From TrEMBL, chain B:
It is found in: Cytoplasm. Signal peptide: none annotated. It comes from Ruegeria haliotis. It catalyses: D-fructose 6-phosphate + L-glutamine = D-glucosamine 6-phosphate + L-glutamate. NCBIfam families: glmS (TIGR01135), PRK00331.1 (NF001484). This is Glutamine--fructose-6-phosphate aminotransferase [isomerizing]. Catalyzes the first step in hexosamine metabolism, converting fructose-6P into glucosamine-6P using glutamine as a nitrogen source. Its EC number is 2.6.1.16. Pfam families: GATase_6, SIS. PROSITE patterns: GATASE_TYPE_2, SIS. It is an enzyme of class 2 (transferase).
Length: 116, 607
């Protein structure tokens, strides 16, 4: 049997990213309130946990893009946590923050190419 | 089924109890209630229907007190009514109960001889009355509760609260699970860790026959023999216990969407990076030494077993029997010492499956379970417990647990094939590679959500629906039908395509939608012939297939649902997604309660 779990991990990562995308869309569509930001924070943390786990390895051609995603998510989470600590918002409060490294959009196409 | 919570706290108990009961809603219920002790006085509030009715009652008629017990009831003995709702109270004692007291008639007769009358039809009232009876005879609350528990036969979890005792709950477990939560000068009781998740992450699970005495600062557990018992306190991961729909309308939708993630977890657990074989942890299980496999389960897990029968027979050339757990014991099947007995249950607490497992104890070579809850009774009573890693499943209609069960069972079949030498290394590698790619393919199936919703809109107007499948898709046809009837209340049946002409075809007319699960595989042509027979009688076919299958057979069908290409062995796992989404969107279109469908319970803990 082959011993490489790359494809399993790509599938897992894509599903988590799909859920984050859905949560971000809901956040934008519903007044950017904390309830949706909280859901997004939870799911993004799951992505971070996956891609920073010891045995996660999608191979050399994706290393750089995964590194960019890690930086984006760590930066985003840091800004989220800082804003949350400052304001301790309630679910219906508007929750907006900036200043984090942007999402590496090229990753989507790269992952899809590995699935096809 | 029924849910139990209890709190000895530092704050008002009623809102904590109601919130905890909300977290147990997923188990299914039709009435709810709480009792508290306030300044030594026992009071209670109960309401029929959803928890919002109990909350409304508490707004108008508050129940103060920092100690309390609560319950969601799924009716067994007596209709859903305020009178039958828990907690049951008899004089100075209130009781909540999950399970069935099988000897309650005998106990009622005994109490009647003492001139004690009854107000309800429930078995639980008997428990409260018997405890009161023992209290009147001079026993302390703890002694009275213990003496009552000694008299009970059946499966139960119980919590007792007493008048004048605002720092005491007595709890007991026999057959139904119960967890104790440790807080900071607070103590909690819950049917599972989910109920207690925001309150504490420190949990002690009671074991079979245990009874516990809780105060705010102490927990004393005795086993069935009355001896002090030392039970481990575990720190659970709150993330695993927290139940949150996120941005999804229903838990079921979230759980369907999570499938690529949790199936990947299952695959990584049994086929870790670097391993070239399926790896079962901590076991010397060797299928080459076994003659036969007996699989037992209920509901959706039963259909997972039926699917696995094909895998074990085709891949490992191993004879397999599959039984519904509630019937298994009554056949008194001979189990030899070269039989592997395998039990599948999401909760690991399914009463019939547990009873079947106990029937096999001492007969089978090994007892293996495939469960989602590693601390469950079924897991603990097995020689080998294989977790499916699906995470908490809240929707009553099982989705992600089903695909994880299938994934684990397929890996087990591959292990059997390797042990028995029935597949070559190349064939094993081929299957393993396909399995490792499954999460990505599941993502592609989920992309069809919109198209499936359109088909479901049409399906929602039907009164009856048939599902057809052949070979590996036959059990999935039955699972698809079960999913649809569970949550949309539309009558649905799953048939082997080849059986159509032996009866079901008489049902076909222009009003009958027929969902055909047919990947372009070795039996596709035969299935399409059966589909043509349906269309010739004006039946409305929804064809679920891949590009090749749809290109060949889409003429004249009502609608199509397009799936990606997949290794034939994995098709039942992939095609579960459209079956689940069809049921989900049909139920949403009909406006039914998707996550808590009427009359159903998530964890069936009574026989």
């Amino acid at each position: 049997m082959g011993s490489d779990n790359r494809h399993t991990e790509i599938g897992q990562l894509m599903a988590l990213m799909r859920m984050s995308k859905r949560e971000y869309e809901q956040y934008l569509a519903n007044g950017r309130v904390f309830r949706h930001a909280r859901h997004l924070r939870d799911n993004n943390q799951k992505i971070l946990n996956l891609i920073t786990s010891d045995d996660f390895d999608l191979g050399p051609d994706l290393t750089s893009a995964i590194g960019d995603l890690t930086e984006h998510l760590q930066d985003w989470a840091r800004c989220w946590d800082k804003e949350n600590d400052l304001r301790t918002p309630k679910d219906d409060d508007v929750f907006v923050f900036t200043g984090y490294k942007t999402y590496p959009k090229h990753l989507d196409a790269l992952l899809q190419a590995h699935c096809d | 089924m029924c849910g139990i919570v209890g709190v000895l706290g530092q704050h008002e108990a009623a809102p904590i109890l109601v919130e905890a009961l909300k977290r147990l809603e997923y188990r299914g219920y039709d009435s709810a209630g709480i009792a508290t002790v306030n300044s030594g006085a026992l009071g209670r509030r109960r309401a029929v229907g959803k928890l919002v009715n109990l909350s409304d009652l508490l707004v108008h008629d508050p129940l103060p007190g920092k100690s309390g017990i609560g319950h969601t009831r799924w009716a067994t003995h007596g209709a859903p009514s305020v009178n039958n709702a828990h907690p049951h109270k008899a004089g100075p004692v209130a009781v909540v109960h999950n399970g069935i007291v099988e000897n309650y008639r005998e106990l009622r007769a005994e109490l009647a001889e003492h001139g004690i009358g009854f107000e309800t039809e429930t078995d639980t009232e008997t428990v409260a009355l018997m405890t009161e009876h023992f209290l009147k005879s001079g026993l302390s609350p703890i002694e009275a509760a213990f003496k009552t528990i000694d008299r009970l036969q059946g499966a139960f979890a119980l919590a007792f609260l007493f008048d004048g005792q605002d720092d005491l709950i007595v709890a007991a477990r026999k057959g139904s699970p119960l967890a104790i939560g440790h807080g900071d000068s607070e103590m909690f009781v819950g049917s599972d860790a989910i109920a207690l998740a925001p309150l504490t992450n420190k949990i002690t699970y009671l074991e079979e026959g245990d009874r516990a005495v809780l105060t705010r600062t102490s927990l004393e557990i005795r086993n069935e023999a009355g001896e002090l018992a030392n039970r481990e306190m575990r720190k659970i991961k709150l993330d695993h216990a927290r139940a949150d729909k996120g941005e999804h309308k229903h838990f079921m939708a979230k759980e369907i969407a999570e499938q690529p993630i949790v199936v990947a977890e299952a695959i990584r657990s049994y086929m870790p990076t670097g391993a070239d074989q399926v790896v079962l942890p901590d076991t010397d299980l060797d299928f080459s030494k076994l003659d036969r496999l007996t699989m037992v389960a209920c509901g959706t897990a039963f259909y997972a077993c039926l699917t696995a029968k094909y895998w074990f027979e085709q891949l490992a050339k191993m004879p397999v029997e599959v039984d519904i757990a509630s019937e298994f014991r009554y056949r008194e099947p001979p189990i030899t010492d070269r039989t592997l007995a395998l039990f599948v249950s999401q909760s690991g607490e399914t009463a019939d499956t547990l009873a079947a497992l106990r029937y096999c104890e001492g007969k089978a070579d090994k007892i293996v379970s495939v469960v989602n809850v590693p601390e469950s009774s079924i897991a603990r009573e097995s020689d080998v417990a294989l977790p499916i890693h699906a995470g908490v499943e809240i929707g009553v209609a099982s989705t992600k647990a089903f695909t994880c069960q299938l994934s684990v069972l397929l890996m087990l079949a591959l292990k059997a094939a390797a042990d028995r030498g029935t597949l070559s290394d190349e064939e094993l590698a081929d299957h393993a590679a396909a399995l490792r790619g499954l999460p990505s393919v599941l993502n592609t199936a989920l992309d069809q959500n919109r198209a499936i919703r359109k088909s479901a809109q049409r399906l929602s107007e039907a009164r009856d629906v048939l599902f057809l499948g052949r070979g590996l898709m036959y059990p999935l046809a039955m699972e698809g039908a079960l999913k649809l009837k569970e949550i949309s209340y539309i009558h649905a049946e799953g048939y082997a395509s080849g059986e159509l002409k032996h009866g079901p075809i008489a049902l076909i007319d222009k009003h009958m939608p027929v969902v055909v699960m047919a990947p372009r595989d070795a039996v596709f042509d035969k299935t399409v012939s059966n589909m043509q027979e349906v269309m010739a009688r004006k039946g409305k076919v929804i064809l679920v297939s891949d590009d090749d299958g749809i290109a060949e057979a889409e003429d004249g069908v009502w609608s199509t649902i397009r799936m990606p290409h997949i290794h034939p062995s994995l098709a039942p796992i992939l095609y579960s997604v459209p079956a689940q989404l069809l049921a989900y969107h049909t139920a949403v279109a009909k406006g039914t309660d998707v996550d808590q469908p009427r009359n159903l319970a998530k964890s069936v803990t009574v026989e």
